[in-house]
Amino acid sequence: MEIIQFILIQPAVKVLLSYATSKTKVDQEYDLYIHSPARKLYGYYMNQELVGCIGIEVEDVHCVIKHIAVSPAHRGKGIGHEMIQFINHHNSFSSIDAETDRDAVMFYKNIGFHITSLGEKYPGVERFACLLTGPTLQRSTST
Q1: Closest by CA position to 15, among listed 55, 53, 64, 56
Q2: What pLDDT digit, counting tens, does each position of 59-86 carry?
Q3: Among 21, 33, 30, 115, which Cα is nearest to 69's?
Q4: pTM of structure
Q5: Which residues are paired to 67 by β-bridges?
Q6: CA 74 to CA 133: how far, in whole Å?
Q7: What are residue 63's DSSP bridge partners?
């Protein structure tokens, strides 16, 4: 994995980020990664092809996953989990959290995140808070 720092968004990055946010917000979100010192965007490469990305916001020893995406052809192979392991291993956070929808909540639950329903934040859309802390953080990222 390596940090993505191109001033102009690359097409492969734009496609991946569009899986994790609305297509209308991709450029705006990417701009935040380039210009905010608290945000970092990492790319996961296989055979020199960008197949995943994870974007985080760092708040002291706490990490918020803002975006995580894997190309459809590479999903289900543990890449998302590997990206979270990489982020924790290289930063030693005391907690990692994310907010997600029903489609992705089991991904977080399966790697040890504690899940709390936030109810319908938007009409007809239930959202979930996902939190990984303490011993759970160490167990999930050491496997």
Answers
A1: 53
A2: 888 999 999 999 999 999 999 999 999 9
A3: 21
A4: 0.88
A5: 55
A6: 28
A7: 58, 96
